[in-house]
Amino acid sequence: MPRGSQTPYTRGLHELGDGLFAFLQPDGSWGWSNAGLVVGEGTSLLIDTLFDLRLTREMLDQMRPATGPGPIRQVLNTHGNGDHWYGNQLVPAEAEIVASAAAIDDMQEVPPTLMHTLAEADLDEALATFVRHAFAPFRFDGIEMRLPTRTFTGSLTLDVAGRRVELLDLGPAHTRADVIAYVPDARTVFTGDILFVGGTPIMWAGPVSNWLAACEHIEALDVDTVVPGHGPVTDKDGPRQVRRYLEHVRDEAAERHAAGMPAAEAALDIDLGEFADWSDPERIAVNVESIYAELDPAYERPPAPVLLTRMGAYLRGRRA
User: Fold this and answer.
1) Dihedral through CA 266, CA 267, CA 271, CA 272, nearest 10?
2) What angle do CA 292, 315, 177 make, to 5 degrees?
3) How far apart are CA 291 and CA 266, in angstroms?
4) Does the predicted TM-score (pTM) go above 0.85?
5) Which CATH number goes with the domain that contains 125?
6) Which tens digits make up the pLDDT trace of 236-251?
7) Residue 297 lies in a domain
8) Per-residue confidence (pLDDT) for residue 1, from 0 to 100
């Protein structure tokens, strides 16, 4: 049974052993998120749904033989980005949906209806470039907003037919709440978007210090299989790679902040070095803004539409 970095990075459901599964979606770019499944005796835990109904329905169909007599009775939404919860309406009606309390605000701020409106809107050129790049493959019509029914703060232990699954909110980092799910008896952790493997992380919330601490926490766990929110299944090299990227951008941004360079200019000026080949490099436009906000509490980050437009401009510049 392949474990950790030996799991092939192909689309669909992959058995990890010990009643654990990962649903992977290459190439892990915008919206192409992973999900997980923990199967117990007579019950199962689903870790995240997907970005639209078509994708979530396909995933659940593939999972049905794996759950067998143990249908999904619990669902964890690791955080509030839509590619990890918009498919909630398709899980069984009796299923308990769990999330960190802080994730609810993110979910309510960007409901599926907003994404549908954005996808259909007449936008300026740079913003349209980004929206096409990030969201064109997905369909946001028909999605009903089904929020978690149980929230927690800090940590929570779930019982999946006698199997312990330890939930820990390591945010704010990527978003306001970033929950990992650690399965000690299988030496496996599902990290949500604390980890992007082979792709550029994006720091919607920060601070970067929290995200670095989250990577260190994962590195310290007794695990040999790490399932990221995006990208291939990995081992402890995954959090080490993300930590190196964040440290690099933190240091480069801090140097430019000290020199008085505006954040938008700094994002274009930073040499990504060993991380230049990672997908979605435009995310540095958001990451630098978050780091500037951490360095200066009085700093006002631009609103989301401005950040999306900057990422679109970054993409257009690279393609020119």
Assistant:
1) 150
2) 45
3) 11
4) yes
5) 3.60.15.10
6) 999 999 999 999 999 9
7) no
8) 52
Strands 96-100 and 72-76: parallel
Which domain does 64 fall in, by range?
4-254
pLDDT in tens, 30-39: 999 999 999 9
In this structure, are residues 22 and 9 in contact, taking their beta carbons and an 8 Å threshold?
Answer: no
Question: What's the CA gap between 76 and 227, in Å, rounded?
Answer: 14
Distance CA 213, CA 99 (A): 21
Helix (H) or strand (E) holding 22: strand 20-24
3-state secondary structure at position 32:
coil
CA distances to 86, 207, 283, 296 from 260, rounded to whole Å, are: 40, 20, 21, 12
Beta bridge partners of 96: 74
Arithmetic mean of pLDDT, 303-320? 84
Phi (first) and psi of residue 294, to 5 degrees? -70, -35
Count of structural domains within the chain: 1
